[in-house]
Each structure stands twice: as structure tokens, then as C-alpha cells.
Amino acid sequence: MAQRGIREYHGKRMLARHLDSFIKQGIGYDGRIVLVDSETDWKQLAKDNPWLAKEKLVAKPDQLFGKRGKHGLVLVNKSFAETRKWVEERLGKKQVVNGIEGTLTHFIIEPCVKHEAEYYAAIKSGAECDYIYFSLEGGINVEENWDKVVTIKVPVLGGIEAVANEVDAVMPAELGNNKALVANFLRGLYRYFAAMHFAYLEINPFAIAGKSIIPLDMVAKLDDTAEFICYDMWGSDIEFPAAFGQHLSPEETKIRELDALSGASLKLTLLNPDGIIWNMVAGGGASVIYADTVCDLGYAKELAMYGEYSGNPSASLTYEYARIVLDLMTRKPDPKKRPKTLILGGGIANFTDVAKTFTGIIKALNEFGDKLKKVKARIFVRRGGPNYQEGLANLKAAAEKLGVPIEVHGPEYHMTRVVSDALKS
Amino acid sequence: MSRPDYLLFDRNTIALIYGLQTKAVQRMLDFDYCCRRDIPSVGAMIDPGKSGAEKMFWGKKEIFIPVYPDIKSALQANPAIDVFINFASFRSAYDTTLEALTFDQMRTVVVIAEGIPERQARHLRAVSQQHGKVIIGPATVGGIVAGAFKVANTGGTIECIIDSKLHRPGSVGFVSKSGGMSNEAYNIIALNTDGLYEGIAIGGDAYAGSTLLEHLMRFEANPAIKMLVCLGEVGGEEEWSIVEAVKSKKITKPLVMWVTGTSIKYMPKGIQFGHAGAKADASRETAEAKNAGLREVGVVVPESFDDYDKAIKSTYKKLVAKGVIKPAADVEPPVIPMDYAEAVARNLVRKPTSFTCTISDDSKDELLYAGHKISKVIGENYTVGETIGLLWFKERLPLWAANFMEIVLKLCADHGPAVSGAHNTIVTARAGRDLMSSVAAGMLTIGPRFGGAVAGAALMFKEAADHGQTPQQFISVMKKKNIKIQGIGHRIKSLKNPDQRVELLKEYARKHFPKTSLLDYALEVEQLTTAKKDTLILNVDGTIGVLSVDMMQGLGWDETRIQSVVDSGGLNGLFLLGRTIGMIGHYMDQNRQKATLYRHPWDDILYDLPEAE
């Protein structure tokens, strides 16, 4: 994987734990925040966090989606009891956010900070340099006021020290006495961003209270490949939640489990279980191209799934994967009585023994023989690589024995031509 | 050897491999051989902290590839190396790449590892640019210059390489992110043009060490490349820089390109395709936008990947028609002998075996003793005697026989420190030698005079009984031949002062053996011998020997089988195995005492030399 979003809760806790070690004067953010879900023991929560009872509070969902205010999902300046009631009323409820329906499962609660100005700070990594953004006009209107955002480019080799003075220079005059405070904060935030291997960090807005800087809202993405460096700093409770509204079917969950358990790569995303085109493709790059080709030829609506198996999976793992695909595909016939098409695609394998991986598919085909006939299945195969001839011949013989129509092709046939063959016929 | 900047690899390129990647190296050497290169493309390997050499094949011949402990020593010894192929893991690839970039002789670094943090990958690119060097990767299979040089595992098996005509140069330059798809692309290029000249996979990460455009620019500068083929990907801005380069005429050679990921708009939000970089956040980064942008500036962009081959073919044909390309001739590559292991796997060869084993098998899922699974041996609680039966006689013995052997082991386990076996073990242990040496020193004393008369006794008594000799005839024959009957005689024991061990054995056998005919015969012999001298008793070796024969007969074995056991001398194993227990004990005993070197006292030796001159 790579850049992955984290919860605001974890982002703020990390900030409170580590930011001050990157800034001389410190910014004094105390990290008072709690994360609640349906399992939360509210009494224990109040006991562990006495400030909850003393302060007026803010609450909002923490599930990697923005524009929470616009959806009426931010509670401001309420007592603990009121906040608890409000959160409990919403936990587990369905909610449509930005056109996607999902379930509200996680909320954060923080002290309500009285403030006037709302500032914007963000850091983004790019190929040639990193970008620090700052604006006096933070909050929900920052995008409309993008011309007021100042940008500092941080070079890859020199880092923040190479542009330290520039940060002071671009601080708007309106900051007055707080110019040095904010400049120091931005420099420290950048060092923190780099050391913690963030890919994106946005604090919008943040407020200034005396010599302290309080982040009010935060969005952050970490580069998860840096886990081996940052494990301790990120904290053992760090998690990378799925996107809001991403609901996994039991089959998708099963494939994820198989994927996590093996060194090979197995992926499955159900797009339309009633679709008639089922792509089971070897290889990450090839699987995308097969999906593309189905869509480019005008059959996007009929594409049942996106899937991939690669990284030299064993015959038994391939069998497990194929079973799940065939099961989904044969649950019911097409209402319009059209045949269902299984495309066993793939490019030319480097070193994977094609005949060996195909034995797993053949085993699954044999198991689903009658069911395949009931949905009028047809199979189109294209694959190359070590022992592909033997693999193709075995597959062909197996399907013919079952009475399932099959076409097999090797590397002499253009990789995606089986897709156009299948769609035309 | 200076090469133009546009050429990273040619027929003389020599690489240093970080990691003991013998498979990848062998694939490079096989490719070299197919291309009829004069010298291997691998100069050395690095195995951190170790040095030596690895044996590799060059065609049929074996050659050595040196192994160095670090980059510096490898480069000092091999000044011609200018490519570093880094197989270090994602944890250490950053440090090793950074180090390699600091050496002047290095021009190109290929980083294979997947999962290098983005910040590190980006820093590596910046450092490489500072030093005027090129990084390919991370997360790549590498690249290839047809007929000249191949990075590591690029191109797959040698059969696949030859099918895609990669053993000789064609006219097409290809670059993609995906390494997996590059194999496919080389195949498409081989089917639709005169073949590949150079192909590079820059790797699927968000921040690659070198970009698609940078490689296209090299191809543009290379006069041998007439046509460019590229496979882009959804996500990122890279393809737009290609649009700019074509627009501003920095790229003038015909370019066929397709950006994959057109289906992403039909996928649920946030889906991650195979590659870390393949994620479209902005509309400019979608595959459609990029394909349209490329098409607009005159790049040949098919309607879908399904027409990619046709687009390549028609572009190539136009170049041939214009005379820009004179199609490269096909070349027959030399045959690479198949590896023996692969030939075996494919059932293509057979050879007679040099050894045969009929007692145990470790080549299956579970260890077998004479067909009995080890889990059964343990699960059913086989006795030591039964286990010996499996390995010595290939069958699970009935308990009366198995117990007999255990009794023998117990009786023979030790006989005090003074006997020659224990004595030698003790002296050796005290000389500071290890367990194996000390016990072996003791074992080497076992023979006809000490402990090793079991087999001899069995042989002699059995032969006499088999030939129907009376005990008297047997003794006379042996006397005439002047052969001492093995298993008869003891230093101190006699009929009046019997050896307790012999009595125990006789008692057991009489009670449990179906018959004891050879023992009875031997005891008749003993009656006669002790009449002459009362210490000429049937001793413990003799008793074990004759009872072993009685045991085998009692088991109902046929005569040939029994005789072969007796002839083999294997029955001495009972004493040898038993006594090893005691000798190990003596070794431990001496060590426990921290006993020092033993020196035999002078006054215990008679020095009887000729008079000194």
C-alpha cells in the first residue's frame, strides 16, 4: 500500500505526544481528546478523563470524511451528558455523506475551545518538493479563498532548514505579534511531518490561545511503508480505517484474510454481483487492463468484479480464490438468460508455473461443474509463462469434460482479445 | 568504457549485485550466453560481511563469480562495474543505494525492493540527480537492452526471453511502470514489430527514481531506437510531462502509448489498484484525461488496450514503409543446457541411483522407519527394542524378542572403568577431546578380544550346529585348525563362580524364547571346555551370540536371512550400542570431575631397550 488516512483522534494524539520535541518553545497542545465507539464504557471514560465533566465539549464523527459541519454532524459547546446523548443517538446509524452511505461508528470528543481567528495549515508531499500552506482564512472557506494561502516549497535535499527564513518572510502582517509563534509552529510541524513519514497533514482550522496553538480539526495520511521506522512514534494503537461506507461482503472479507495470511496477493472487489462478466486475472497490472477493456468496450455495468491473484500463489490458494469467484458467479442465472462469462486472463508470467496454478482452478471448476452449466457459463482463457501449454491443455480438457464451453489462448494471442471475443459473441 | 548518456547498458556492461541472488545472477548469465556476449554481465555479488566466490554456469561451463563483504571492496576490485542491482530489503535498500551513489564509477542503480518509504525514495532520486546518476525503481523488476544486458529477473524464463526475441536488438524503446506488464509488452512488441531495443520498468511506487519521460528522452536520443512505446497508469502527473515533451518537440519519434486504469471510475471510491502510485485524486490524473491529452498532441493512443497491438503494428509498418526502420534479422540463439533440477521436475531425464536405502525415509512429509511413521512409533509407544527391530531387521519385533535386545543393551551398558573401552574413553576425555572423539577412542577397542565376539561366536556355533558336528567334533576341528572358539572363556569367571549376566540371559531365554537350540548346543560345548579348564565358560559375548541366532530362528526367519545377519557381523552392534551408553557416561564423569591429562607412571612400564651406546 502507501498513503493511508488515519483518524483525527490518532493524528491529534500523535501531535500532542511528539510535536513539542520538534519546536524549541513548544506549542503547548495537551491532546485532550477521546475516541468513542459502540463498545465505549462511558463511566470509565469519564473517570479516566476528568476534564470531560468540567469542560464544555465538542463532538464529531471520526471516520475519514470531511464537511461534517455541513451534514449537521458537529456538536459544539455542550455538557458531557448532552454530548453523550447526542453521540449515542448517532452511533450505529446510517448516514449519507458526500453521496456515500455508511454507518457512523466512531466519534471524537474534545474540549470546546473559545477562539476568534481560524487559521489554516497544511503540508503535502510532492515529487520535487514538499509544500507548506498557510492561511489566515481557515475553516470551511479556505478553498474559496485559496488566493490568500501562502505556499512555502521545501526542497527534498535541503529540507526545512534551507527555507527557514522564507517561512518568516511570508508570514502575513496581520498576524502581528504572533508572526514568530506561527512561523516556529510551521517549521516544527514540518520537521514533525517529515520525521513521522506523513504524506499529508492538514490542520484546518487551528486557533491561537496565548502562546499555545490548538488544532481544531485535522486530516492526516501516513506513508504506511514507513511503519518499520515509525512504529514506536505512531503508537501501537494506530489504525488505517477503511473509507467511509466501504462495506465488505463475506467473500471480500474472506479474500482479504487469505491475502493477509499468504505471501501471494489476492484481491476481490465486488462491483455488480448480477453482472455477467467475471474477470479472474493473474497479475496486478494485467487485472487493471482487463477491467479497463471491459469498460472501454462499453460493458462497465456488466463487470461483476475486480480481482487479481499474483505473487506465485500455491495451487491450493488459487483453488480457494477460484471457489469464491465461481460461487459468486453461479448463485443465480442472468434474468435475461444471457450466458455468464468467466475470463481467466493474465499476461506472461515471469516464473510462476502456470500449469501448477491452473490445477487449483481446475479443481474448483470440477466442483462447480453443474452450477456453471445452470448459469450457461462460458470460459475464455489467455495466459503465458512457464508451462503455459500444459496448463491451457489441462484447463481445456477439464472444461470440455464438464461440458462448459471454453476457449484457450497463449501469448501468441493479444492479451485482452479474449475480452472482445467474449463481448462480441 | 565510456558510453553515451542515453545508453545505460550495452554488451560490455558489468553489474554488481547486492545480495547473494544466485538465481537472478544465473538468469543474467544465461541471457548473456544467449546474446553471445564476450564477458559475463555480473562482475561480483555482495553478501554483507562475507567473501568468497559462487559457482555459476556460463553455458555448459562453470565459472566463479566473486563475492565481497561490502560495496567498496567490490568496486575497488572491479573498476569496470558501473551498474548496481540492489536486492536489499525495504529496510536496508535506502542505505545501500545511498552508499552506492557515492562511488564515481557507478552510473546506474536499480532498486528491486518494494515498500521503501516514499520520503526515502524521493530523497534517493534527489541524491542521484545531484551526482548525475540514474536510479531505476524502487519496486521494479528492472529493465533490458535486447541482445546486450538484462537486469536481474527481467523478461522471465530464458524460453520466454527467446520467444520475445530479446536476445537480439530490434528498433523499439519501451517504458512502463509495471514490471509484470513489461513481459507482456515485450511479447506484443515482438509479435508486431522487429522487436525491442530497450525496455525499462520504472516501478509502481508514487515516487520513482527515474521517470517515464526521462527514459523516453534517452530513447529519443538513441539513434538505434526508431519508435517509442509506453504504458502509463492512472494517478500522478507524469504522463502530462510526456504530453508537454511531445508538444514542445522534445520527443519527435513516433510514440504509441496507453494509460491504464480507465475502469477506476466504475470502482468504489478509495480502491487501491495493484500499484501504490495508481490512485487518481484529481481529474487530471485519470486515465481518460491523460489518454485524451496524449492523443491531442499526436501520440498514437488506441481506443482501448485491446487495440494497443494494432496501434503498435501500424506505427511500425509506416516506419518500415518510410525506410526509417530496416527490420532487424532474426538470430538463432545458442542453446542453453537445461538445469538438471528443472529437467528432473519436467520428467525429461533419468539416471541410475548410486545408493539404495531400505530402512528409513526422510524424503516424504513424515519420517519413516521401515514404513512406520515416526508419529506412530511415538504415538504407540514403541519400545527401544522395537525401534531397533525396525531399523536393523525392518520389522516390528514381537515383545519377547524386542525385550531380549533391550536386556542385552542394559547388560552391556557398562562394565566399570578398567575395561579397555571405558579406559580409552577416560584417557581421551582427560586429554581434553570432545565427546565424539572420546567415545570413538573407546569404541575402537571393541573387537575379538573385547566385546566383539558376539558375531564371531554366533557364526562359529551356528556353523558347527548346522553341519551336525557334535560338541566334541566341533572342539576337535577348531583345535586342529588352531582357532580359538569365540564366546568361550573368561578371565575370572567359572562354572562355580558364574557370570551373573550370562545367568540372567539364559533365564530370560528359557522362559520366553520358543526354543533355545543353539544355546543348548553351546552349553554342551561349555561342559567339555570347562572340564579342561574351569574358566573356559560360555561368556557373555558367546551367550548373546547364540541367543541372537535362537531369537532369529524363533521369529521364523528363513535360513538365508539369518545367515546374512550372522555373516554381516551386525550382531556386534548389540554390544557396541549398549556399551556406548557407558562410554558416554565415563566421558561425562571425567568432565564433571574436571579430570586433568592422564600420564601413565614410568614405574609401571618396563623399559627394555638395547643398551645405550
Describe this protein's structure.
The complex is a heterodimer of chains A (425) and B (613). Chain A is built from 14 helices and 19 strands. Chain A has helices spanning 8-18, 42-48, 51-54, 80-90, 164-169, 179-195, 227-234, 250-261, 284-296, 315-329, 354-367, 369-374, 388-402, 417-424; strands at 3-6, 34-36, 57-61, 75-78, 94-97, 100-103, 107-111, 119-125, 129-135, 150-155, 198-209, 212-215, 218-223, 265-270, 277-282, 305-310, 341-346, 378-382, 406-409. In chain A, α10 runs parallel beside α11. Chain A has 425 residues and is α+β, with helices and mostly antiparallel strands. The two termini of chain A are 38 Å apart. Chain B folds into four domains: 9-140, Rossmann fold (3-Layer(aba) Sandwich), CATH 3.40.50; 170-324, Rossmann fold (3-Layer(aba) Sandwich), CATH 3.40.50.261; 360-397, no CATH class; 413-592, no CATH class. Chain B has a seven-stranded mixed sheet with strand order 3-4-2-1-5-6-7, sandwiched between helices. A six-stranded mixed sheet of chain B has the order 9-8-11-10-12-13, sandwiched between helices. Chain B starts with 13 loop residues before the first strand and ends in a 21-residue tail after the last helix. Mean pLDDT of chain B is 94; it is low at 272-280. At the A-B interface, β14, α9, β16 and α14 of A face α4, α5 and α6 of B.
